[in-house]
Amino acid sequence: MLNGYYRRWATAFHFVAFSTTLLIAFACNAETKKPSLSVLAVEYPPFTTSNATDRGINFRLFSKAVGHRFTIKPVFVPPARAGQVLRSSPWCVSFYPPKGMDDSVTFIPLSEQRVELAFYRAASSSERVSSLHQLANERIAVLRVKELGPFHQPLLDVGAELLMVESIAQGLDLLTFGRVDSILADDDGVISALSRMQDQPVLERSKLVYFETMVGAHLNKQCPHFEDLAELLRNTGY
Fold first, then answer.
1. In terms of CB atoms within 10 Å, which end of the chain has fewer, N or C?
2. What is the annotated signal peptide range for this record (predicted)?
């Protein structure tokens, strides 16, 4: 009698294990079947950069909109080659503006408002930063770049010390432990990074907006995924 019980138990166990394996295999197979989507970009940190874990603000916003349907593959090229690639090769999405292709390209914003870069620091009773001069001699976390350039020069001119980080999350960790005084970032990036932290610091944003711009993606109407991409981007609430 016991042998019969154990046989039934073993049969049930193997059935559950087999079913679980099938479900996992199905999920993995569904993931691998997502169409691959190459996205052309040039180094333009912090918006597009191969040095950041999320490849920059543009890629982060784009991934939030279409990443559940496509496997996104960033393709970084030198600015001098970008125009030639867009003119001579088939492509679907570019963060680099195509020239002379207005009839075959559609630009779709990735954010309802202009993306603003500001300084985030631990909340305090002190006056919020409203000018660059208040950042003199402060340690500021910025997204990693190969070398500091014109974008960072105003901060260097006032005597700020810039510490490069791989991601906004890493910058927030440094801020939490007092390794930096503030982090230069955008609202969406900070909110996203905070949502993954167990002990969320209380932050305040500077009154000063260091840089702002409208970000979006250029879609090639000849791309076989054009209709799907356009619908996904337009349905993100923007």
1. N
2. 1-30
The domain of 121 spans 115-212
Do the Cβ atoms of 204 and 121 come closer than 8 Å? yes
Read off the CATH number of the domain in which 64 is found. 3.40.190.10
Contact (CB, 8 A) for 216 and 26: no
Residue 196 tokens read as 């993954």
Q: Is 173 contained in some domain?
A: yes
Strand (E) or helix (H) holding 2? helix 2-32
- Asked whether residue 177 is assigned to any structural domain, the reply reads yes
Structure tokens at 68: 């559940």
Beta-strand ranges (E) seen in the chain are 36-41, 71-76, 93-94, 105-109, 115-122, 139-143, 161-165, 182-186, 203-213, 216-220
Q: How far apart are CA 208 and CA 220, in angstroms?
A: 36
pLDDT recorded at residue 7: 55
Query: What length does the chain have?
Result: 238
Residue 26 located in a structural domain: no
- Average pLDDT by consecutive 10-residue portion of the chain (238 residues)? 49 45 45 84 91 91 95 94 91 93 90 92 92 96 89 96 94 95 95 88 95 94 95 79
Only one residue has tokens 């197979």, namely: 29
Q: What integer pLDDT is reported at residue 60 of this predicted model?
A: 94
